[in-house]
Specification:
This is Flowering locus T. By secondary structure, this protein is mainly beta. The chain has one domain. Helices cover about 0% and strands about 15% of the residues. The chain has no helices and two strands. It is elongated, with a radius of gyration of 13 Å. The relative contact order is 0.29.
Length: about 50
């Protein structure tokens, strides 16, 4: 399940400066154990996703 997707984040800043493709949505159900995996890919030059 995709909870959040941000692309084109400048290397000298953070996620708020990227393009938010999918707004954050909290896990459902709200009880129980959840696993979050954050995946970062480095973009070379000024490529956009």
């Amino acid at each position: 399940y995709l909870h959040w997707l941000v692309t084109d984040i400048p290397g000298s800043t953070g996620a708020p400066f990227g393009q938010e493709i999918v707004n954050y949505e909290s896990p459902r159900p709200t009880v129980g154990i959840h696993r979050f995996v954050f995946v970062l890919f480095r973009q070379l030059g000024r490529q956009t996703v």
